[in-house]
Amino acid sequence: MLINTREVPTFAVIALGGCCWDYLGIIPHYPGVDQKVAIAELSMQGGGQAGTGAVAVARLGGKVAIVSRIGEDEFGRHIRETFEAEGVDTRWLMQVPGATSQWAFCAIDETTGKRTIFYIHGTKGKFTPEELDREAILDCRCLLVDGHHNVAAAQVVRWAQEAGVPVVLDLERRQDQDDVLLTRASHPVLPHKFALSYTGEGDVVAAGEALLAAGPQAVVITLGPEGAVGFDADGVIHQPAIPMEPIVDTTGAGDVFHGAFAYGVAMGHDLAENLRFSSAVAAMKCRMLGGRAGIPTMSEVQRLLSSGRPQRI
């Protein structure tokens, strides 16, 4: 098992990646071209893969920092303020002078809770490896890394592997540096479409086994409403999705799963325990509009987790 050699790391989790500002609206149906539809409910919240993962860690009680970039605009101000309100350390949240922040509009189907996202990256740019401090970014029990700053992320994952710091990896789409990230991160947690596309395999089990053979300690493939499948040296384990009614909005469920999983790694959970824990946190997120409003506290998660452990297959 990978262990951080630092005696007492400052943070449970440090998250490197994207953050943005979200406008979210619930609609009764998706309109056709040149049509209109009334928004039933509107919310504004922070978003982004690593950003929402970091908030999940904080809401669960973990000490967490975000390493990301924002613009010198109103969206950037909101992003920083919401991180600070949640207790996320923002010392490495870089504001880029004269730049704009990433933002998105998410349309949520009232019946299913599924979302359609429109986004703008903004002009805040990406980190280079030279902008990051190796000692500072490894001062944690687990790193959470997405593909937003892909070149810098590849360097950070190399550093982490050398230092024995676990890395939970969150990739949504194919891009440069995937090979480095997927072979050096200790815990890739990937959506099934990405896993199948990257490996060229025709089923999830074959894809997971191929990814595990490349070097990680464990691999997780998420299946949306079908749950998640984990792979490690002991075999394969399926964690069904944890029922949650009503499902209001699935926006950010994957980001929250990654944040919870990274916190579970930091706490020393084994794969089966962490799959169940992360699935519960992500399920509870879906009870409210937006990626962050429904993220539970640790006591709420513990109340939900009352059934037995999943079985290996």
Short structural description:
The protein is α/β, with parallel strands linked by helices and 313 residues long.
Can you walk through the features of this model?
There is one protein chain. This protein has 313 residues and is an alpha/beta fold. It has one domain: 3-Layer(aba) Sandwich (UDP-N-acetylmuramoyl-L-alanine:D-glutamate ligase). The protein has helices at residues 49-59, 74-86, 134-137, 150-163, 178-184, 192-199, 204-213, 253-267, 271-285, 298-304; strands at residues 11-16, 20-27, 41-47, 64-71, 89-96, 103-109, 115-120, 140-146, 167-170, 187-191, 219-222, 228-232, 235-239. A nine-stranded mixed beta sheet has the order 5-4-1-8-9-10-11-12-13, sandwiched between helices. Strands 3-2-6-7 form a four-stranded mixed beta sheet. Strand 6 (103-109) and strand 7 (115-120) form a beta hairpin.
